[in-house]
Amino acid sequence: MIAFVFVFIHPFGDGNGRIHRYFDATPQAEYLYGCVIDTVRQDLPNDVLFLEIFDRAMRGVMDHIGKDKRANLTPELTDTEIDDLERIILDARTSVTNR
After folding, report:
1. DSSP code for 51
2. Residues 8-28: pLDDT tens digits?
3. Can you spell out the DSSP letters for 6-49?
4. Sign of the CA dihedral running 66, 70, 72, 78
5. Which position among 21, 47, 48, 97 has the lowest Cβ density within 10 Å, counted as fewest Cβ atoms?
6. Contact 84, 64 (CB under 8 A)
7. What is the pLDDT of residue 81?
8. Cβ of 88: how many Cβ atoms within 10 Å?
């Protein structure tokens, strides 16, 4: 506080004071604070939820594929595999959101 007062009103050697201009960053700080609060309250929980769902789905996919087939994975999936993948993802999402 003393440093602020010294900078704000700084007497010269002849006894005359001067008013120091300063930049009021209060609106910018309040905006940044709001952004951080939004991130902590909304974005982080959503990101954690996504990662939990993704991890559960991947475990389901890997369990479904089996250890012997994991080394030979190809990007093409059959219709049945796509349906199974969709069911695994929906099951993972339901189990995470219902906790």
Report:
1. H
2. 555 555 555 555 566 788 899
3. HHHB---TTS---BPP----HHHHHHHHHHHHHIIIIIHHHHHH
4. positive
5. 21
6. yes
7. 80
8. 19
What are the structure tokens assigned to 78, written together? 């059959």
**Maximum alpha-carbon separation in the chain:** 90
User: How many C-beta atoms surround the C-beta of residue 49 within 10 A?
Assistant: 13
Q: How many CB atoms lie under 10 A from the CB of residue 47? A: 11
Q: Residue 79: its pLDDT value, please? A: 79
Question: Does residue 97 contact residue 89 with C-beta atoms inside 8 Å?
Answer: no
pLDDT given at position 91: 80
Q: Which pTM does this prediction carry? A: 0.42
The label of the residue with tokens 């007062």 reads 5
Residue from 59, 70, 44 nearest 95 by CA: 59
Rounded Cα distance, 55 and 40, in Å: 22
Tokens 């009021």 found at: 24
Higher pLDDT, 15 or 66: 66
**pLDDT, average across residues 65-83:** 69
